[in-house]
TrEMBL record:
Gene3D superfamilies the record matches: PAS domain (3.30.450.20)
Keywords noted in UniProt: Biological rhythms, Cytoplasm, Nucleus, Repeat, Transcription, Transcription regulation
Organism: Mustela putorius furo (European domestic ferret)
Name the record gives this protein: Period-like protein 1
Taxon lineage: Eukaryota, Metazoa, Chordata, Craniata, Vertebrata
Domain PAS: 333-376
Superkingdom, natural source: Eukaryota
Principal location: cytoplasm
Membrane-traversing stretches: none
Entry coiled-coil feature ranges: none
Compositionally biased intervals (Polar residues): 76-92
Region called Disordered, residue ranges: 1-94
SMART domains: PAS (SM00091)
GO molecular function: transcription cis-regulatory region binding; transcription corepressor binding
Length: 464
């Protein structure tokens, strides 16, 4: 257990257990951590699980893994000078507390991350480690305001009371029943205001949010994305785009961030995260009469629905674009892909393109890149390709491709793809977590094909 935690904490010390069980766990955890890429998609999670179960070293039960940590801690807490009986008693007590803590942690694990046996214990510890990093990041993030007070965005802001804020934001939240507004203090990270629609959309009482840290409501893998998109100096001020006559705001010029927010528990699977598009602004809010105004991040949150469910995206509008490197790694994903595939943009960035394609369609990518080279990057249409959505089912897409040729090196710098969904998945809710089952993995075929494409694009491009 200790070695599993160390292997997934990127260099933190603590390899104190030296028994054979600990060494076996260390080998397996190292193998598992090298195979995963931290994405919150079913494909990548099942990849980690399958590679872990295929390890050659024996797989002890979770209690044996926990016992390795117990042995290390009890040796430090109970020196050899104490009696044998006291050591055994302390060890049994520590083991009981450890297993109780593990059971409690597993109850708080998101349903899509749950597993059985050792994989479940490892997933629980990885999730707990992510939460610890999230808390540490909170303390660093909310110091940004004091460091950036001199920035222009902090100098010219209107101050609102909670009543004024509710009146102003209701103009937007009442217009769209899938939208709510929330204000988060830059000084504490706590929610100072949230609209009534939040309780309906997230299926919990409004009082649950008061005083809570907003980042604790986010899926751990989305916290870093949220922080990176809401630095105070980069946000527009609330009211900057408001027309004095109509009082309407133009959202098209604002940059949104996509995050999953934890809602109320389901009957069977516990808490479930729902995808939202967050549009952030910076403003000042006076919580009570006589209180000092505090800088806040005001978020307009709009829930994202599957593009195949009502209100459906029209078939002729089911289009999105992608950009990937010569190594076939996603470099940019159009936000329009979220309701069509079920992935948020950050789920795909840096992931192998071939991993998400149907195994029978992967060889087509080699032919596509050969044609990109032959046409010197000029756009062309290609036959349909099947892409795996987040719910584990495939959508069929008509694709068009083009390459950007660097003017100096005459090599393809990146590849652009335009995709139009032709056939929707059988399960139209693309955001549904897939049932645990053997799925795609980063096998040798994908790596070999990616290397072939990369070597191909190292060649200089000649005019067609």
């Amino acid at each position: 257990l200790a070695d599993d935690t160390d292997a997934n904490s990127n260099g933190s010390s603590g390899n104190e257990s030296n028994g054979p069980e600990s060494r076996g766990a260390s080998q397996r955890s190292s193998h598992s951590s090298s195979s995963g890429n931290g994405k919150d998609s079913a494909l990548l999670e099942t990849t980690e699980s399958s590679k872990s179960t295929n390890s050659q070293s024996p797989s002890p039960p979770s209690s044996s893994i926990a016992y390795s940590l117990l042995s290390a801690s009890s040796e430090q807490d109970n020196p050899s000078t104490s009696g044998c009986s006291s050591e055994q008693s302390a060890r049994a007590r520590t083991q009981k507390e450890l297993m109780t803590a593990l059971r409690e942690l597993k109850l708080r694990l998101p349903p899509e991350r749950r597993g059985k046996g050792r994989s479940g214990t490892l997933a629980t510890l990885q999730y707990a480690l992510a939460c610890v990093k999230q808390v540490q990041a909170n303390q660093e993030y909310y110091q940004q305001w004091s460091l950036e007070e001199g920035e222009p965005c902090a100098m010219d802001m209107s101050t609102y009371t909670l009543e004024e804020l509710e009146h102003i934001t209701s103009e937007y939240t009442l217009r769209n029943q899938d939208t709510f507004s929330v204000a988060v203090s830059f000084l504490t990270g706590c929610i100072v205001y949230i609209s009534e629609q939040a309780g309906v959309l997230l299926r919990c009482k409004r009082d649950v949010f008061r005083g809570a840290r907003f980042s604790e409501l986010l899926a751990p893998q989305d916290v870093g994305v949220f922080y990176g998109s809401t630095a105070p100096s980069r946000l527009p001020t609330w009211g900057a785009g408001t027309s004095a006559g109509s009082g309407t705001k133009d959202f098209t010029q604002e940059k949104s961030v996509f995050c999953r927010i934890r809602g109320g528990p389901d009957r069977d699977s516990g808490p479930r995260y729902q995808p939202f598009r967050l549009t952030p602004y910076v403003t000042k809010i006076r919580v009570s009469e006589g209180a000092a105004a505090q800088p806040c991040c005001l978020l307009i949150a709009e829930r994202i629905h599957s593009g195949y469910e009502a209100p459906r995206i029209p078939p002729d509008k089911r289009i999105f674009t992608t950009r990937h490197t010569p190594s076939c790694l996603f470099q940019d994903v159009d936000e329009r892909a979220a309701p069509l595939l079920g992935y948020l943009p950050q789920d795909l960035l840096g992931a192998p393109v071939l991993l998400f394609l149907h195994p029978e369609d992967r060889p087509l990518m080699l032919a596509i890149h050969k044609k990109i080279l032959q046409l010197a990057g000029q756009p062309f249409d290609h036959s349909p390709i099947r892409f795996c959505a987040r719910n584990g089912e495939y959508v069929t897409m008509d694709t068009s491709w083009a390459g950007f040729v660097h003017p100096w090196s005459r090599k393809v710098a990146f590849v652009l793809g335009r995709h139009k969904v032709r056939t929707a998945p059988l399960n139209e809710d693309v955001f549904t977590p897939p049932a645990p089952s053997p799925a795609l993995s980063l096998d040798s075929d994908i790596q070999e094909l990616s290397e072939q494409i990369h070597r191909l694009l190292l060649q200089p491009v000649h005019s067609p």
